[in-house]
Structures are given as C-alpha cells and as structure tokens.
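Q: Predict the assembly, please.
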Amino acid sequence: MPTDRNRRMIELVRVGRTYTRADGQRVNAVDDVSLIVPEGEFVCLIGPSGCGKSTLLQMVAGLDAPSSGAIVVDGKEIAGPGRERGMVFQRDSVFPWLRVVDNVEYGLKCRGVASGERREIARDYLRRVSLSHVEQAWPRELSGGMLKRVAIAAVFANGGEVLLLDEPFGALDYVTRHQLQDVLLDLWEEPGRAVPTVLFVTHDVDEALTLADRIIAMRAGAIIDDIPVRAARPRDTDSLLLPDMVAIKHKLLGHLGLEHRAAALRGGAAA
Amino acid sequence: MAASAKAMTKAALSQDAPSSSWLTAATRTLAALDPLRLAGAVLFIALWQAASAVVLPIILPGPFSVLQRAAADFWSAPALSYYGVEDPSLFANLLYTAENVAIAVLLGSAIGITLGLLSARIWFVRAAIDPIMMTAGTVPILIAAPFLLIWFGVGRASAVSLVAFYVVVILYVSAQRAALNLDPIYENSALTLGAGKRQMLRDILIPATVPEILGGFRIALAGSWGLEAVAELLGSQSGIGKILEVLAGATDPQGILATLLVLGTAAILADALAAAFIARFAAWNFAAR
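A: Predicted assembly structure:
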C-alpha cells in the first residue's frame, strides 16, 4: 500500500490530561492540544523537561488515557494500546527472559503468526539492525546500544503503521546515538512498504533537525510552535549548517529558554 | 623411524589432552565444593571427635560411631520395631518424610504463588488475603500442630497441612513482592506489541517473577524438612520425626545423631537439586554472570 500524504494518521482533538498531585493541587500536564499528522510524516516533539511531551506520547500509545478530548488513529478513536502503534521507550524494555530473536518476534507471536514465518521476519530485521550475530544471546549480554537496536527491530518487525519513540536515544553516547538515528531512518524509509508515521519525543535540537519532517515545540502542556523542516534527506552534519536549519535551531533554542545560546550562535555565524 | 617417533609423540600429546581436561574438571569440582567451607566442616568434626574423647559416649557419641550407626540402620533397624515403628529402617521413614515434604511443598507452592501473583495485580484479593498471611507470618506456625492433630489425626494429613501452610505463606510473600517489584516497562512494552491478558500473564508476569519466586521456593523447601520432622515428632506413626521421638524415649543419643545426619543429608541433596533446577529454569537471569 503506497503512502498517502493526505490521509490523516494521527488526530488529536482538544486532548487534555490533568493530574492531582499528592499535595492536592491539580496540574495540567497536557492542556487542550490539537494536532493532525498525515500518513508517513516524521514528527519530532521537543520541549523542556516537564512540558507534557512524554505524557502526550503515552496517551497516543494508549498507556495513559486523556482526561478530556479524543485521540483518533487511522480514523478510529483509540481505547488502550494496540499493535498498530509500536513504541520504543527510553529505558531498556527488551524482555530479559527471552533470547534476542524471541524478543524481536514477540509481537508476531502474540498475533499468532506461524513460528517459521515469524522467525524469518525476525531474522530479517535483526540483519537490518546488524545484530544477526547475537540472535541467540540473552539481553543481559548486550550493551545499551545493542538493546536499543533489538527494541527497534521488534517494533518494526511487528509492522505498526505508527511508531512512537519516547526519547529513545537520550541515554546513549554520542557515537551510538548517531548510529541509531541512521538505523531508524533506514528502516523508516524502507522501500516497498507504506512509510510509518512517527512521533519522536526528544529534548535534543540537533536530533530533531536531523530526523524530522516537522517539529512541534511544546511548553507547559501546550503546543507553542509547529515548524516544517524541508531540508533534503539524507541529512549530515553540514545539513544542520544550512541557513534554514540554523534559523529553525534559533527558534527552537528560544522555545527551550536558551535564547542566549542562540545569540552566541548568530554571532559566531556572522564572524 | 623418525616418522613413527613423531607419530608416537603426537599420540602421547593427544593422550595428554583428556588428562588435562580431567584436571580442570577436578579443579572446578574443588572450587564448587569451596575449600573454606570444607575446612569448616573438617574443623567441626575434629572438635566433635576431641569432645567425644573426653565426654561419655552416652552423652556425646563420636562422629565415626554415628556414621557407622547411620549406615547400619539405613536399610534395616530391627530394634525400632519394638517401639511400634511400622517399617523399621531409616530409609523407609526418610522416604515417608520426604514424600510428605514433597506433597506439602508442591501443594503449598501452587497455592502460595497463585495467590501472591493475584494479590499483586488485583487490589481486593490483596486486601482480603494480606492480613491473614501477615498474621500467619508472625505467629510460629508450629503452634497450630495440636489443633491439626485434632482435625486430621496422626496420619499424613496433619503434618502435610502444617508444612503446606508454611510454604503458602513464604511463597505468597515472595511471589507478591516479585510481582510488585516488576518494572512496569515490560508490561507496557508487551501491551504496545499487542499482548492480550492471557499473554501478559504467561509471557510477562510469570517468567519475570520466576527467579525471585524460586528463591522463595528454596527457602520454603529448606524449612519444610525441619517443620515436617517436628510435626511428626508431635504425633505420627512413621517418619524421621517419629524415629527421633522413639530414640529420645530410649535415651539413645547415637541413634538420634545418626537419624539427624540422614535427615540433614537428604535436605542438602534436595536443596542442591532445587538449585540446579533453578539455574536451568531461569537461565536468562544467570547468563554472563
């Protein structure tokens, strides 16, 4: 099925989430957020810590329910988690009691895919994330970066149309983070299948600029900016120096409360 | 000539290989036995031997006479039949005790683990059962023995139910704690991968809690031997406890120590078996350690 950019894949309609803190005070973690994401778009959610971006993602995953409003995915209002919305977490979520290959095929197993067929699919995705050699290893024998690859392979093998990533590379080192961004983009752009729609939560401006078609900035539970990123793919370190990209970066730093950094950057560019 | 000499050296070398692997196997066995623990045991036996040389044998028989007595009475101890022991040998009575321990541990684990896992995920199960288990955990269970004797008589049932109850309490607590401590990320991840209710239980909750539960199982198993023996001591027609009661009545410390030696050996073997089983069953938890 080809990707249809006019098809609304994720639709948030006036979504709100209110918590009551232990001291009795009510907190609006997400406040009246509306958003439409067409099929195949790579959207990065960025904002300072506590701005509600993770809560929003949890609600789209169905792991948390909105206090008000509705979340519609592919034309159906969601009521709980579902396999069409795969999720990659920041912390290690790979099941320690299953071998690597069994982890990758777990979603397929839940759906009753025959064991030979799902093993084949799992091996294919393990190859794509360069982990064929540890197929039979236990997760505790793998490094943090390798575990992330397993989690990504598991989500893609499960074939969801929507991918939700909650600061997936936030705890990784510089080199591993960039390698995994490439792994993710390769799988996302894989020819021969509909391009998955992605919501990617991050606090890293450069990461958002490298990955996204569109960047949504949040603050205090609300969307404060919605910026398209038109730079050609694949993007490298030089792409981030394009005037358009630098302008977006200034804006985002401002949204994150780091205006003084943006000013220094502008001074440097002028020199 | 030279070629055949070369071939012979080669043969000698290849013969060397198995002997060196035998050596590493021996080293490994020694390491597993732990020389320090072995030294402790040797010291204990030496002190025992020294003490028994000073004290009268009727008070403290020597370790070797106890070992001889255990070997002699293992398959047949006719003297016991005078005291009304049905099957007069240590082996037959050990078997009776072991059977009761096995029944109680299996029954108690099944109930304890089920209730413990349920209590961790369903609030009203926890609200209903927690107080009972916590009370049972603080009161020594042995004091229920006379009551159980009234209910079930001196057969298997009274001792088994006592031990089973003890096992239920221990495994309830360890299963509940394991499930409560389980990082919710695994259940969340399984949900987003499309796992249903049954799969969540079978593929996530049970395997994730197995190592901690099996740890509780080992503690329960170890305690069960002693509890079963004491329950038999208080009222039973057979079993290691019954023999201990009879020998105490006959003022036979050598027999008592021999019986304890047999019981202790059985308990240690059962524990080693359980440990090996756990290492196999929860391999993921031990990999790369």
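Chain B touches chain A through 24 residues (CB under 8 Å). Residues 99 and 221 of chain B are 13 Å apart (CA to CA).
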